[in-house]
Amino acid sequence: MSLRIIFMGTPQFAVPSLALLYEAGFDIVAVITAPDKPAGRGMQLTESAVKKYAVEKNLKILQPEKLKAPGFIEELKSLKADVQVVVAFRMLPEVVWNMPPMGTINLHASLLPQYRGAAPINWVIINGEKETGLTTFKLKHDIDTGNILLQDKIAIAENETAGTLHDKMMNTGAKLLLKAINGLANGKIKEIVQSSSKGSGDETLQHAPKIFTQTCEIDWKNNTDKIHNLIRGLSPYPAAFTFLQEKKLKIFSAEKEINNAKNNPGEIFTDNKTFLRFSTNDGFISLKEIQLEGKKKMSIEDFLRGWRGN
Known about the structure:
The protein is 27% helix and 26% strand. It is α/β, with parallel strands linked by helices. It folds into two domains: 4-185, Rossmann fold (3-Layer(aba) Sandwich); 213-306, Methionyl-tRNA Fmet Formyltransferase, Chain A, domain 2. The strands form three sheets. The chain has a seven-stranded mixed sheet. Strands 10, 11, 12, 13, 14 and 15 form a six-stranded antiparallel sheet that branches. Strand 1, helix 1 (15-23) and strand 2 form a beta-alpha-beta unit. The termini are far apart.
């Protein structure tokens, strides 16, 4: 069965998924992505990564400002899609996700029902998880709660960052999504109802809410592992931060040292040449790649060459 697919997505994370569906020969009847936005110093209108791919492949593109706009809804209906696929797109109104006869399939970057929400890649690392994964599921009214189609597990390395995990999941997720759509096309997928309050076994459900500025500020009274996980989980964006001489200091990478030394949390130690570290309640965080407010991103050695510190 050759499915008529409407694909919805915006950032680079969604591009491999669209590419695999296109290359597999599915009929992509339209690609829906965010409107072009001004960016950069010249505020030039910039196309999303998904739009750039769609233009390259001469696919029909829709960029609605409002997903409930009557004109947009009528155009969706006219496309007569069998199924819609959503990867890293905004929330859909029911009139949109409930339209196709085979429903709307979403790719989510966690092992649902764990880490429902906007920032699962960040939160699994912030919380020190050793494993995560990807889930394809059918959208319904409550966010990230629909019936599961397929899942795939991914190990989280000790020094994994949100950036490196994102790139792994982007490609693994695309393959999982293709497998799910093939399964739907040949009728060989059995949907699994999500648990509403527990994960597999009896563990409490973890959530993945949007990241706010207050999430990113480091509390040096915490233990070394917790701070190191926060730095990894927010790197490269939006980045964990602290303050140095009253200026915001973003930290993109760091090394941890647990030694139960009794220093004041947040106390700075440096040789002004090769290392700058902050004390925690059980050790140190040694900075490796940073960006001081008003400066470019740089290694700690480059930073110390121009810094007049203690």
